[in-house]
Structures are given as C-alpha cells and as structure tokens.
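Hi U.,

Before I forget, here's the chain from the pilot set. I'm dumping it here mostly so it's searchable later in email.
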Amino acid sequence: MEKRFKKFLDEKFAPYGNFPSRADVTSELLSNLVEKYEDLKKEGKSDKEAYQATINSFGDVSEIMEQLPHNNRTPKENLSLSKLIKKSVGRDSRFHQTMLKGSDLKDVDLHESDFNCTELRETSFDRSDLTGSIFRATDLRDASFAKANLTRVVFAGCDSRNVCFDGANLTDATLKGADLHGATFAGATLIGTDFSQSDLTDAKFDNLTLEGVVFDSSSLNNTSFEGTTLHNVNFHHSAVKHAIFVSTKIDKVTYALLKGAKANLDKAKIV
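Structure:
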C-alpha cells in the first residue's frame, strides 16, 4: 500500500518539479497517509475503503507549496511544515461534492472541512467555527456566515453572490476569484483578508477597519467603503473609479495609490 501512496504523491507533486524540499515534504506526507490508512483499517474498513477515504482526505497541494519556506522569510515566519502536512492529510472531506442546499449548519464546529464543489446555496453557517476550511468552485449564493469564525478559510472561484458575512471573523481568509456581488460585511473582522481577482460589485464594507486587506485585480464597481478606515490596503490593478469612499479614513500610501488609480476621494480623509 505504501507504493500506491507514493505513486499518488508523485502524481500530485509532478507539476512542481524537483523543488528543494520535495523529498522532506513527500516523505512526511507518505508517513501520515500510511498512518491514516492503518487507523481506518483498524476501524474495520476494507483495503479499498480505507485507501479511498485516505486519499479523499488529502488537502490541496497548492496550499502546501504556498507555505513552503522562502529565502526572504525567517523560520519564525514560516508555518510548521509538520502542522501544515497534518492539516493537509487530516482535512474533513465528508462534505466534498455533496448537496446541502438550504441546510442549517449554525453553531457547529466545522473547522478544517472540505466543501469543494458543494451545493450550499441558502445554507446557514451562522456562528459556526470553519477555521481552515476550503470552499473551491462552491455554490454559496444567498448563504449566511453571520458571526462565523472564518479564520484562514479559502473561498476560491465560488459563486458567493449576496452572501452575508456580517460579524464574521475573516482574518487571513482568502476569497480569490469569487463572485461577491451584493455581499455584506457589516461588523466583520477583516485583517489580512485577500479578495484578489474577485468581483465585489455592490458589496458593502461600510464603517469597518480594514488592515492589510488585498483587493488586487478586483472589480469594485459601486463597492462601498463609507465611513471605513483603510490601513495598508492594496488596490493594485483594481477598478476603483466607481467605488464609494465617502467619509473614508485612509493612510497616506493607500490614499496615493487610490488617487493614482483615479478613485473619487473628494469626501475621503488622510489619516
């Protein structure tokens, strides 16, 4: 079985070539996959069932690659490789490619879950803990995450129109390439949140404090930042001309970048 897992890993990492730490990464992943497989066998699963469940629990290789150490980062700034690998192998995959439209998932511990390619339209996750979960190519239209813990959650390529993020903690969350038309963020915590390449038309970020948030290459048509404080926020290559910055408080660097992008800052203030 170890040979099957080794072949599985070789296929997963084939697109990345022979990067420097590949041997260490694949060795630890292999060990964890075998350990998980053996645990499932002890639970009474057949060889086929245990193997399938093990590979189904495997996370996204791109996440591991993104977090590998780089020369310009100190050891303290890098995530523990061991913890990252454990997370990749151990992610809860029971929701993967399932139909959960209109489900009530409020007040539930769902951290480290895999919701990839899942139908979640009109589903409520209010006040639930989704720390570290992944939503890729997921239908989230009209879903609610009010007051949910979305720390380090990945929403990639999702249809997230009219989603309610009111009061949610989106610290270090990634919402790349998402359709966020009409999404609301009233009272949300936005620290290090990445909205790159997303469509935020008509979204509202009113009366918030945004710290280290990224809107690179995003559409911000009629997106409202009224009464909001922007600190170290990136808008590189974003359509900001029709975004609303009424009574917005902006640090000098961010203000200069927005001005250069022809944003209307007549009613904004530099802080």
